[in-house]
Amino acid sequence: MFELLISVSGIGAKSALVILANIEPHSFALAIITNDEARLTKIPGIGKKTVARMIVELRDKMKKIELEDVAKEEIKTTIQADENIVEAISALQVLGYNKKEIEKAFEKEKLSGLSVEDLIRRGLAILSRD
């Protein structure tokens, strides 16, 4: 993980050590894959620009690396849920809803583990109330 971190432009050995001292490697990988900027910006000395650069440069690499079995399953589930959410958002946009209002509606909901169809139903129910 350390080697991956120092491969990011603007991240040196000192910053990589600070990151790894403040977050578990599997949690870091999950945060990168899910674009969890809020979690990563809580690390001391790591700002929004650095987080954005880390996500861009490490996302594909993180999907490929070998992690602990538990972390692998957690990441796999999150990736699947994320893909389902993206598909549901696209479907709702086709139905005429604005992407920002869809994302705002989905922010308040627990969406992990839902199928695309269930996400669309839930999205329609939420958006029709507003």
How does this model look, in words?
The protein contains eight helices and no strands. It has 130 residues and is an all-alpha fold. The chain folds into two domains: 1-67, Orthogonal Bundle (DNA polymerase, domain 1); 68-130, no CATH class. It is elongated, with a radius of gyration of 17 Å.
Write out key terms for the chains shown.
DNA polymerase, domain 1; mainly alpha; 2 domains; 73% helix; 130 residues; elongated
The CATH homologous superfamily of the largest domain corresponds to: 5' to 3' exonuclease, C-terminal subdomain
Query: What CATH architecture of the largest domain would you give?
Result: Orthogonal Bundle
Calculate Rg over CA atoms: 17 Å
Shape designation: elongated
Total beta strands: 0
Q: Report the mean per-residue pLDDT as an integer.
A: 81
Order of helices and strands: HHHHHHHH
Question: Can you count the helices?
Answer: 8
